[in-house]
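User: Hey, my collaborator sent me this sequence without any context and asked if I could get a structure. I don't really work with proteins. Can you help?
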Amino acid sequence: MLALYKLVAKTNLKSPTISFPLIFPIIIMLLLSTGVVINPDLKSVDNVTQVNNQITNIFVTVVAIVTMQTGLMGFGFNFMNLKKSVMLRRIGATKLKKSEVIGAMIGYGLTIWLIAITEIVILLEIFSAANFFYSPAFKTVTKNIPKVVGHFYISSINWGFFFLALIIMLIASYTIGIFVCSVSKTDNSFQAVVMAYFFTVSLMSGMLLSTYIEVWMRWIGFFLPHAYINELFKLSSGILTIGSGSFNNGQEGGNINTYKFILDIIIPLVVSVAALGATIKYLKFD
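Assistant: No problem. I've predicted the 3D structure and written it out in structure-token form, which is a compact way to encode the shape of the chain:
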């Protein structure tokens, strides 16, 4: 298995696609960090709390998006790179099982994912130390108030919900990504499908639009397994809470009831099992 892992890594390191999962977290961090805002009508201490809450949400959102991107696209790009190098056909001619090959590709993908998550944490610390999150207006409103950021998200995140969402996100993203790869005849068709799904989920599930999304966007979210996982991430950051509410996809300050919370766990896992079953049937090495 280790030799197969090294082979997958060696093949992918020669491909230009290796740069995308490493640059993507930086772009998303910069994009979301510029959206940190203040309310001049609030007291200074309240503004510090507000900004810290936004930084927590940035961390959770970026981790969710990068994890989804790594799972959906990572395996497919690895698979297509091996196909282009004729290495996959040679592997298929050996006695190696499909599960071993898939396991090596997922292992390589998880390595890249861990590097990306490390990038996110380092960038968050650098931005905090450099007061990147604090605009001139914020500094004026909150002068003489100690600004504690950086490690704030460590204590404000519900880590139980966070790791639950992270595990389900990895499972769902990889199984759906592998399934799309198994039924795609060319790398162009694979890229078209996963990119369309990725951006649909990011925009329609409330992943990027955390304060308000239109009703029709919420209806689309019912059919996207990652929209349910996104609610688990929002539970971890405090944007959503478990209460007496119902389906409140991405609405800030909303509640979801216990029944909906259970569905947020079950639906992505059911889709993952179905995708994995289809993959075993359709995935080929030629």
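In plain terms: Residues 40-45, 137-150, 245-252 have pLDDT under 50 and may be disordered. You can pass these tokens on to your collaborator as they are.
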